[in-house]
Amino acid sequence: MVKEIKKIEDSAGSEIPTAKNREELEELRIKFLGREKGALTLILRSLKTLPDADKKRVGEEANKLRGVIEGLFAARTEELKRTETESILKKEWLDVTRPGKKGPHGHLHPVTLVRREVEKIFASMGFGVVEGPEVETEWYNFDALNIPVDHPARDMVDTFFLKNPKGKNQSPKLLLRTHTSPVQIRYMQKHNSPLRIIVPGRVYRYEATDASHDIQFQQVEGLMVDKNVSVANFKGVVLEFFKKLFGMNVEIRLRPSFFPFTEPSFEIDISCIACNKKGCSICKKTGWLEVMGAGMVHPKVFEAAGYAPGNQQGFAFGFGLDRVTMMKYKIPDIRLFHSGDIRFLKQF
Ligand code: DAH
């Protein structure tokens, strides 16, 4: 029996301190101290079969060993706990002083970039930036601008008419503005001349889309009114604007045209920014690019805005911001602007 105890002591002394992990340690605990079949438990249980003389001695030995084994377990458990914590710390170590990963960054849309540039250039020439509503009345969008009732622009085919929230056939007749020109009227109703403003903003056209037409795009309206504003002033302002916008010595030319709200009216071309009038595919071999409509404000427009006749004159113009952005960045299709295609947007 004593031999047996010695054997247990030896194997416990070599196995417990080298247990690799807590599961192995638990297996050893069952092996030596397990309540059913633990080696030492069996010895303690068999004490009663021994003669009285041996009982005491063997019992003392066995109990001493129990204390020793428990001590070994406690020590190894401590050790394993420590190395476990150490390995977790090693594995999950984090250098909190390192710079973090950068998240993806958005940026301004190309049309917005150009819009801001346009605003800056006109601001440098004393023009204020004004906005107006995108939901307009038929009066501001058409009548006040001298666009007659039978004008084709009024057709359902070109204009998004809206339901009046008060019910069918109620006035005013609402629509999505087809141009930024109604803001001319809105502004002049509230401000007397002299005035100098530009009006950037969204406009809507009910038409088929293609590479150069979208149902929604942005325009910039311009309006300058004073006692003696002339076509020469207009040419000076607009030439300066395009030179600054395209960063080169462009030329402009005025062609006679027609708009109901200006008299006389012009179409403005700039010398082709791609070939400088030599003729290329961008200007369709003409050397010129059509960029804006303009003219001297029609007396009927002043009248609609409540200005006294004969006291002032002015010029007005309107151009497509998307179109100018396409020219500046050589973008071939207007529909790319609202495609949401990151590959396109990332280039700006
Ligand atoms: N409103 C016109 C359009 O949408 C552009 C325009 C032409 C505006 C001549 C003007 C102007 O102010 O004088 O096509």
TrEMBL record:
Positions of Mg(2+) binding: E263
Chief place where the protein resides: cytoplasm
Residue stretches making up the Aminoacyl-transfer RNA synthetases class-II family profile domain: 114-347
Record keyword Membrane present: no
Example of a GO biological process term: phenylalanyl-tRNA aminoacylation
Entries under PROSITE patterns matching the protein: AA_TRNA_LIGASE_II
A GO term from the CC aspect: cytoplasm
UniProt-recorded Gene Ontology molecular function terms: ATP binding; magnesium ion binding; phenylalanine-tRNA ligase activity; tRNA binding
Enzyme Commission number(s) from the entry: 6.1.1.20
Keywords from the named record: Aminoacyl-tRNA synthetase, ATP-binding, Cytoplasm, Ligase, Magnesium, Metal-binding, Nucleotide-binding, Protein biosynthesis
Details of cofactor binding: Binds 2 magnesium ions per tetramer.
InterPro entries: aa-tRNA-synth_II, aa-tRNA-synth_II/BPL/LPL, Phe-tRNA-synth_IIc_asu, Phe-tRNA_ligase_II_N, Phe_tRNA_ligase_alpha1_bac, Phenylalanyl-tRNA_Synthase, tRNA-bd_arm
Domain of life, source organism: Bacteria
Subunit-level organization: Tetramer of two alpha and two beta subunits.
PANTHER family per record: PHENYLALANINE--TRNA LIGASE, MITOCHONDRIAL (PTHR11538:SF41), PHENYLALANYL-TRNA SYNTHETASE (PTHR11538)
Family named by the database record: Belongs to the class-II aminoacyl-tRNA synthetase family. Phe-tRNA synthetase alpha subunit type 1 subfamily.
Name of the protein described by the UniProt record: Phenylalanine--tRNA ligase alpha subunit
Organism of derivation: Candidatus Sungbacteria bacterium RIFCSPHIGHO2_01_FULL_47_32
Lineage: Bacteria, Candidatus Sungiibacteriota
Encoding gene per record: pheS
